[in-house]
């Protein structure tokens, strides 16, 4: 039998962990205590220069005004009027 170093419970010699508290029953050498692992130091951040671009400037106030000007469209045919209502009738194009 081996005794748990944490709770004192007697355990079978084949056990690796205490049946009461779950503590490790493996014998450790006092001299082989692992040293704490040190976290690596972060590398210094390198300063990076940022090139600035010219800001986007939209179209000038003039813009594509020539596209906005429209001339009045003239009908190619005279309108067809409905006999009863007298309103213009739209012909099917297709």
Overall description:
The protein has 94 residues and is mostly loops. It has a domain at 1-27. 4% of the residues lie in helices and 9% in strands. It contains 1 helix and 4 strands; from the N terminus they run E-E-H-E-E. The strands form 2 sheets. Strands 1-2 form a two-stranded antiparallel ribbon. The chain has a two-stranded antiparallel ribbon with strand order 3-4.
Question: What key attributes describe this structure?
Answer:
94 residues, little secondary structure, two-stranded antiparallel ribbon, 1 helix
Note the run of SSEs as H and E. Answer: EEHEE
The tally of strands reads 4
Judging from the principal axes of the Cα atoms, what is the shape?
elongated
Question: What is the alpha-carbon Rg in Å?
Answer: 46 Å
- Unreliable sequence segments: none
Distance between the termini: 102 Å
* Mean pLDDT rating: 77
Largest beta-sheet details = 2 strands, antiparallel
The chain-level structural class is little secondary structure
Portion of residues within helices? under 10%
Q: What is the gist of this entry?
A:
With 94 residues, the protein is low in regular secondary structure. The chain is 4% helix and 9% strand.
How would the blueprint of this fold be written?
Layout: E1 2-3, E2 10-11, H1 65-68, E3 80-81, E4 88-89
Antiparallel strand pairs: 1-2, 3-4
């Amino acid at each position: 039998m081996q005794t748990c170093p944490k709770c004192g419970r007697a355990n079978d010699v084949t056990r690796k962990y205490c049946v009461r508290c779950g503590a490790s029953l493996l014998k450790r050498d006092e001299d082989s205590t692992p040293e704490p692992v040190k976290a690596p130091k972060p590398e210094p951040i390198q300063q990076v220069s940022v090139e600035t671009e010219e800001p986007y400037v939209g179209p000038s106030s003039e813009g594509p005004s020539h596209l906005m000007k429209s001339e009045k469209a003239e009908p190619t045919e005279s309108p067809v009027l409905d006999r009863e209502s007298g309103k213009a009738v739209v012909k099917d194009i297709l």
